[in-house]
Specification:
The complex is a heterodimer of chains A (about 270) and B (about 300).
Chain A (H helix, E strand, L loop, with lengths): L13 E12 L6 E12 L3 E5 L6 H8 L7 E6 L4 H6 L3 E4 L11 H12 L3 H14 L15 H13 L5 E5 L7 H18 L2 E6 L2 H7 L2 E6 L4 E7 L14 H16 L6
Chain B lengths: L1 H35 L9 H5 L3 H7 L18 H11 L1 H5 L9 H32 L1 H16 L2 H14 L4 H25 L4 H9 L4 H12 L1 H25 L6 H10 L3 H32 L5
The chains are: A alpha/beta (about 270), B mainly alpha (about 300).
Chain lengths: ~270, ~300
């Protein structure tokens, strides 16, 4: 592994910096190159979406940032540190595809779980839970158990949990993938509002082209075999985005560009 | 309602089969008694009867069939005989104010129960400690697990007398000595169940813990242990029954202070088969109550923890 810490001069503007990142999985029959020569810079306050067909390495890249996977080559820094140091300093919150709430804890206690691990005081925990439930519009549901909530609400609780401890980076791995379209629209809107209010840096992996275009300031199109970046699209859409923006020609143009990028990466081939 | 009817049908069938089985089982004794009383038996002399099969002897002496159900020392007591003895030594004793006399099954049941519960508590604790160490240490996993499994393959009837007698010679309390055997039998299901349970959280939940930089102890306490509760309860049910068996087996070697095993032993010494059977039923009833109690605890706990929805 070749991760080096980039020496700091002044506050880092780049939150995530990847240079020539490689990741090869050694499997029983043949090695799989999940990431090849991935170079990307994510800046503070960005909302970056990763889109591509399955096997293109988008989740793998996210996991590398989270120090859940180790790259086999190249350079990756988070907040100027190695990803593992960033993990230990609790620099990010990770939202998985499934809510992963503990059924034996209420929603409030579920949100308190990382706070307990990180050693926040009781009073602090209560305050944060209140604040974060408000952010995701789940006020009053703190005393309920996960099974009493719908799938969308559980996922909102999971996002609330990731926001509870003031991490500046939010890593989201297809968080709305298991939900239906209507709930998804609603949650997309809420996520954007949240992003505006908290000004976090968000890396978002998705399968859905409209979702990627709607949410992000930058769209990274990836393709598989080997996993690599095909295109990075800076979104020309304004920061204020009502849901109707999805019917405007600008939106469709960006979506078209994304589709072209996917096609170039052979996403639509058999 | 349907299940009650089904259970009742099976019970009636079993009792009917039991009554029917009494005839061939007790026929030799019935023939002997009839011969001594001067009644007619086919064939008349004992030496001829000795080598006859039970069924053929029964078929030849249908007149004796009614006498097989009320013998004093039957080979196979009839259901009503067992029921009467059971009643006499439990409720009958309570009525006479002698619930804890030496003849009362309640006393003996209590002696066995206390050893069972002691051994069960220690066995469960030992099982959980072993499971936690197996899950957290590769060395323990590879070295200790085979020994644990091997320990259960040794026939308990063989080593229980040794352990119990040695402990008694070291002036250890009887109840503790019996508790050791109970612990020996009940820790194994707990280890196996808990190892599975502690390993049950999926990769996503473990990754989640990693993103929060949780220590292994925090992961154990906050994730693994609560996740393993369903597995724990399943193991406890098996463990409590095994613990009771352990206590009864231990009492076969340490019968001076009573207990259901001691009752069984005394019954077999003095040929009191009815006593044996009623002690057997008492042990079975005790096991059923213990398993049921754990089942209730399981339902309540798992419902509160959100597992059984």
């Amino acid at each position: 592994m070749n991760n080096e810490t980039i020496p700091q001069v002044g506050p880092p503007k780049a939150v995530v910096e990847a240079r020539g990142l490689d990741l090869t999985f050694q499997t029983k029959d043949s090695p799989i190159q999940a990431l090849k020569d991935v170079s990307l810079t994510i800046e503070q306050g960005d909302f970056v979406s990763f889109i591509g067909p399955s096997g293109c390495g988008k989740t793998t890249f996210l996991r590398c940032i989270a120090a859940l996977e180790q790259p086999t080559g190249g350079n990756l820094t988070v907040n100027g540190m190695t990803p593992d140091e960033a993990r230990r300093s609790r620099a990010y919150g990770y939202v998985f595809q499934a809510a992963g709430l503990y059924p034996w804890r209420t929603i409030a206690k579920n949100i308190k779980l990382p706070l307990e691990i990180m050693g926040y005081s009781r009073a602090d925990q209560e305050e944060r839970v209140k604040k974060v439930l408000q952010l995701v519009d789940l006020e009053g549901f703190g005393g309920k158990f996960p099974w009493q909530l719908s799938g969308g609400m559980q996922q909102r609780a999971s996002i609330a949990r990731a926001l509870a401890f003031d991490a500046d980076i939010l890593l989201m791995d297809e968080p709305f993938g298991a939900l239906d379209e209507i709930v998804r629209d609603h949650l997309n809107e809420q996520l954007l509002k949240l992003w505006e209010r908290t000004n976090k840096t968000i890396a978002f992996v998705t399968h859905s082209i409209p979702e990627a275009v709607y949410l992000s300031t930058r769209i990274v199109v990836m393709s598989p075999r080997p996993g690599r970046i095909t295109d990075v699209i800076e979104s020309p859409l304004p920061k204020e985005r009502p849901l109707d923006i999805r019917d405007t020609p600008e939106f469709l143009e960006v979506a078209h560009r994304v589709r072209e990028g996917l096609r170039a990466g052979h996403a639509y081939d058999d | 309602m349907k299940s009650v009817l089904a259970i009742l049908t099976v019970v009636v069938a079993l009792v009917g089969f039991w009554y029917a089985a009494c005839v061939p089982m007790n026929i030799h004794e019935a023939a002997m008694q009839a011969q001594r009383a001067g009644e007619e038996v086919t064939p008349a002399e004992a030496p001829e009867r000795r080598h006859m099969g039970r069924i053929s002897l029964a078929l030849k002496n249908t007149g004796l069939w009614s006498t097989v159900f009320s013998q004093e020392r039957p080979q196979l007591p009839a259901p009503h005989q067992v029921a009467q003895e059971f009643w006499k030594t439990t409720w009958g004793m309570i009525e006479r104010g002698r619930a804890f006399s030496k003849r009362s099954l309640i006393l003996h049941g209590w002696i066995t129960l206390s050893a069972t519960l002691l051994g069960f508590a220690f066995g469960t604790a030992l099982g959980i400690v072993l499971a936690v160490s197996i899950v957290h240490s590769r060395a323990m996993d590879m070295s200790v697990m085979p020994w644990i499994i091997a320990s259960q393959t040794v026939p308990i009837l063989a080593i229980a007398p040794m352990i119990v007698v040695v402990l008694a010679a070291l002036s250890v309390d009887d109840i503790v000595a019996k508790g050791v055997i109970s612990m020996y039998l009940s820790f194994f299901p707990v280890v196996v169940g808990m190892v599975k349970g502690l390993r049950s959280p999926d990769a996503m939940q473990m990754d989640q813990m990693k993103t929060w930089n949780a220590t292994r102890a925090e992961t154990l306490w906050k994730l693994r242990l609560p996740s393993s509760t369903p597995y724990l309860f399943a193991s406890l049910k098996v463990g409590v029954a095994a613990s009771l068996i352990g206590a009864v087996v231990a009492e076969l070697s340490l019968s001076s202070n009573g207990g259901l095993g001691a009752r069984l032993l005394a019954g077999s010494y003095y040929g009191q088969t009815v006593q044996i059977w009623s002690a057997l039923f008492a042990a079975a009833a005790l096991a059923a109550v213990l398993v049921w109690a754990i089942g209730v605890a399981q339902k309540v706990t798992l419902k509160r923890m959100g597992f059984a929805q």
